[in-house]
Protein: Serine/threonine-protein kinase RIO2
Organism: Microbotryum intermedium
Amino acid sequence: MKLDATDLRYISADAFRVLSAVEQGSKNHELVPTSLIAQISGARSGGVNKALGELSKRKLEGDEGYRLTYGGYDFLACRTFAKRGTIYSVGNQIGTGKESDIYVVADDDGAQMVMKIHRLGRLSFRTIKSKRDYLRKGQSASWMYMSRLAAIKEFAFMKVLHQHGFPVPTPIDQSRHCLIMELIDAFPLQVFLFFRANLQ
């Protein structure tokens, strides 16, 4: 799932409220009923249906019912960052890994930062529930919730390491499954190792 931030500025406040209600309803329901979405969002059912139609066109909630997708989760996190004043724009994708996507973002002054979006549950990384300590033994959770826990944990570790003088990017903000950190102007280690191997 690639982040497409082009529609972010065109989504209405009601649609974001409904998207947030789907997120909250997903804690207890695999498919969130329209009546619960209306109750959580505080909107009338006609407004909820209109907002759900708007979100469906942008594929921000699931096709087989009202289920939050990673695209919708990305939009909620970006909206939170924008409201806090952390980010103003989203730029190019600069990296992809087994469990995350990396984007360049900027604040309203144009200062560039990095946004890391955790995406646990990709096909190549399905054993994470048994290999990581995000949940207690026997507990289960959705991949989105696991991604959120991974982002919270990484942000906490980065803050502690940075405070103790370790050479890590400066952690700036965290919301849901995303975290914002300092952009370091450097080459990836794999590029350095490739050139070093070819020079010898």
Residues 31 and 66 are 5 Å apart (CA to CA).
